[in-house]
Amino acid sequence: MKRRAFMLSVGGAAAGMVLLPRMAFAEAGKIDWYTSSDQNILDFWTNVVKPKFEAANPGVTLNLVDAGDNAGQTAIAERALAAMQTKTDPQADYFETGDWRLPAGAADAGLYVNMKEAGLSNYSKVNPLAFDGDFSLPYRGSQVLLAYDTTKLDPANAPKTFADLVAWIKANPGQFIYNRPDKGGSGGNFVRRAILEANGKDPAKFKVDNYSPEAADAALNPAWDILKDLAPSLFDNGAYTSGNTQSVQLLSQSAVTMIPAWSDQAIQAINTGVLPETTGLVQLQDLALPGGFSRSVVLANGANKDAALKLADFILTEEIQSAVLSELGGFPGVAWDYVNQDLREKYKDVIPTTIPTFPGGDWEKAINDGWYRNVAPNVDRNA
Question: Domains in the chain, ordered, with CATH?
Answer without folding.
Answer: 27-140+293-346 (3.40.190.10), 142-292+359-375 (3.40.190.10)
